[in-house]
Specification:
- By secondary structure, the protein is mostly helical.
- The protein contains seven helices and no strands.
- It starts with a helix and ends in a 10-residue tail after the last helix.
- InterPro entries: T4SS_TrbJ.
Length: about 230
């Protein structure tokens, strides 16, 4: 009887350690874990979006690897230097007015000496010569830069096509505009120097006519023909 009692009591003590399954609690724990996993996934997606946004900002702020601004500026400076080399009749407004009135009179007064008219004629010829020379020099410089402009245009188009962000695209557009402005300035400079040369040549002819008229009047004198022996 004692052995049977021990067996029964022992069996009851071992049963106290049996695992009890609670379906309701298990479902609640599973739902909580699923919600926690979903929050983690949302946080991961948020971090990925932020990382992508930072990458996009980096691209948009990235500058062009190369720039033609220095090249365009150098060409414009060279053109300005050529224009600044204008001799005698310059592009300065006040000085041009003074020199023009001095060397290109509408008519010569009788008191002006023949030597003065000869010196003026020589100065006018020099002005016309220098004007034509400057115009041809500037034409040569512009034509010589056409190949360079073509290469610059190809570089800018390649930069524009390969732009990785808004800043690079904007820079490419600005430099393309700079190339157009440079070419426009070259055209204006060429027109100015050519017009200057044409004007100087026409003014030289007008002043030469005035000087010739005065010399003719002096040769005729009072209108009496020269008679030998008188």
């Amino acid at each position: 009887m004692l052995s049977i009692a021990i067996a029964v009591n022992g069996s009851r003590r071992l049963g106290a350690f049996d695992i009890v399954f609670d379906p309701t609690n298990y479902s609640q724990n599973l739902l909580t874990a699923a919600r926690a996993l979903d929050q983690i996934n949302n946080q991961i997606r948020s971090l990925e979006n932020q990382a992508q946004s930072l990458r996009n900002q980096t691209k948009n702020l990235a500058a062009l690897p190369t720039s033609v601004v220095g090249q365009l500026t150098s060409t414009i400076n060279q053109m300005n230097t050529l224009i600044g080399q204008a001799k005698n009749i310059s592009f300065d407004v006040q000085r041009t007015q003074q020199d023009f009135e001095r060397l290109y009179p509408r008519q010569y007064a009788a008191a002006v000496s023949s030597d003065k008219m000869v010196r003026d004629a020589t100065s006018r010829w020099d002005n016309s010569y220098d004007g034509l020379k400057q115009s041809l020099t500037l034409q040569s410089a512009i034509v010589g830069s056409l190949d360079q402009d073509g290469q610059t245009l190809r570089t800018l188009m390649a930069n524009s096509s390969a732009a990785v962000g808004s800043l690079q695209a904007q820079q490419s557009g600005n430099e393309l505009l700079g190339l157009q402005i440079k070419q426009s300035l070259q055209t204006q400079a060429l027109m100015a120097t050519q017009a200057r040369a044409d004007t100087l040549r026409a003014a030289e002819q007008q002043a030469s006519s005035a000087a010739a008229k005065e010399r003719f009047n002096r040769f005729i004198g009072d209108g009496h023909a020269y008679t030998a022996g008188k």
